[in-house]
């Protein structure tokens, strides 16, 4: 009886100790991406890349975010430059993100930023935070 109890205890401990590893393994199967760019025209190849990765990754495609920062940040307020990119990003489920530090530094009114573009206070910090969460990162 003691032997059965010991073996049962060991099996239960082994099963419960494997659960966190399985949860981490499942999460690792999801591919998340973040791209930091300084130029709005680069959104075209970035969104093409997102589209291809979404097809390639299939069910493992997770989150894709594009952080826009730098001296050309005002371009995001120009509907002529942004409409097609915003539409394609929404279609693909890509989140466009504006760097608040850049908006402030280059005097861009946050009210002029399209509603579909998320604003974060510091795009570089936000990029590092996503990398710490396991996002694959690229800066252009």
From TrEMBL:
Top-level division of the source organism's lineage: Bacteria
Species per Swiss-Prot/TrEMBL record: Christiangramia oceanisediminis
Name this polypeptide is given: Sulfur reduction protein DsrE
Cited InterPro entries: DsrEFH-like
Residues making up the signal peptide according to the UniProt record: 1-23
Keyword annotations: Signal
Keyword Signal set for record: yes
């Amino acid at each position: 009886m003691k032997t059965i109890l010991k073996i049962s205890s060991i099996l239960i401990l082994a099963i419960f100790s494997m659960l966190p590893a399985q949860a981490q393994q499942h999460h690792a199967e999801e591919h998340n991406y973040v791209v930091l760019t300084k130029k709005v025209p680069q959104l075209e190849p970035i969104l093409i890349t997102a589209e291809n990765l979404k097809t390639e990754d299939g069910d493992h495609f997770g989150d894709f975010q594009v952080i826009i920062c730098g001296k050309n940040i005002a371009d995001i307020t120009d509907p002529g430059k942004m409409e097609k990119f915003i539409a394609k990003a929404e279609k693909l489920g890509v989140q466009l993100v504006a760097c608040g530090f850049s908006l402030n530094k280059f005097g861009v009114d946050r009210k002029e930023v399209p509603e579909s573009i998320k604003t974060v206070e510091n795009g570089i910090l936000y990029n590092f935070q996503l990398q710490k969460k396991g996002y694959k990162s690229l800066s252009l």
